[in-house]
Specification:
This protein is α/β, with parallel strands linked by helices and 139 residues long. The protein has 4 helices and 5 strands, in the order E-E-E-H-E-H-E-H-H.
Length: 139
């Protein structure tokens, strides 16, 4: 499962059972660290997740920002709450790529906002799956 934590919304995505492809799962409005971590922990159990990947936003030059620190703190809180490995992965440009995919589907901007975070989580998860599978897999 991938988690794309944002300041307003959190996107979630799952892989298929073979761990080849990622798909958007849902978007949750941010409710506070404790409630958000509890929600994700429940999703981990519900979907029998074996690993979490948390998107951490680095600047394009690789440096960290306040958002990077917040995402790392979120990942640390998840590590304390779930019994599966929690990995961090650079989420650079995942939201942009998700927006492009939703545009290609013909969604209007107001409709894209509802789904973009889950699609960004799916892009993030697909990157991780592709790295593990030697570039194989689909989107």
């Amino acid at each position: 499962m991938a988690v794309d934590p944002g300041t307003a919304r959190i996107g979630l995505a799952l892989s298929d059972d073979m761990m080849w492809t990622a798909r958007p799962l849902e978007v949750r409005k941010v409710s506070g660290l404790e409630a958000d971590v509890a929600f994700i922990a429940a999703k981990v159990k519900e979907h029998d997740v074996s690993e979490l990947v948390v998107g951490v936003p680095y600047r394009l030059d690789g440096s960290e920002s306040r958002s990077t620190e917040k995402a790392k703190a979120f990942a640390a809180a998840l590590r304390a709450a779930v019994d599966v490995p929690v990995l961090e992965h650079d989420e650079a440009l995942t939201t942009w790529e998700a927006e492009e995919k939703l545009k290609a589907r013909g969604l209007l901007p107001k409709d894209r906002r509802k789904f973009v975070d889950a699609f960004a989580a799916a892009v993030l998860l697909q990157e991780v799956l592709d790295q593990r599978n030697g570039g194989a897999g689909g989107a």
